[in-house]
Amino acid sequence: MSKSDQGEDGTASPRLPRLPPGRHGLSREFVTKNQQDRIAAGVIASVAEKGYHQMTISDISEAAGVSRRTFYAYFKSKEEAYFATYELIIDHLRAASRAVAADKEDWGEKVRARIAGTLEFFAANPDLARFIVIAPQRAGGKLIERYQLALEEASAELIEGKPAKVKTPSAVVQQSMISGMMSLIAREVEAGKGEKLPKLLPDLVELFLGPLLGHEKAAKIAKSSSKRR
To answer: How far apart are CA 118 and CA 123, in angstroms?
Structure first.
């Protein structure tokens, strides 16, 4: 495996197979989707290896196995490609966390399941956590603005469906809760322990539910989540 195939910690980047050269008889729709997916994978791999500011369009094209001309057929800049990929990951993450919580009736258990789904999602490919959690905080600018919005969206997802008797915390408290969770995730990923993220589940459950349900009840749900693993 070449250096461009690896992330910062030596793990494989999410590269996709290249199309065969010449006339392959594939539909335009298939080719377009394949190229866009590979460019997205190239952006993820390049950010993991070099960081957002150091990443170039040539890096993305090389990692994706497409030409610069093909890149520019879809995106005007690396920033545009980054944000398109960011939205793609967020959509997949949201769908994954909702799916694992779909059969839960108790709100606290639903929150636990959504957090578990998020941790499993990142553990399957820690480069995705680097991409949407770590890279924006290092890059600043528009990237950190999108990251802050993502935190608000994540908090809203977790709070959705709470019992009426549970008081909604202020925006500042919500920001603190979700930021603390992301900080723990980022710390583990940067320490090369991304595959072990699911072990954080009890801590993150208690961190989020404590201000909402009280620490005793939150700890009970957190301990029950630990027993399930």
So the answer is: 9
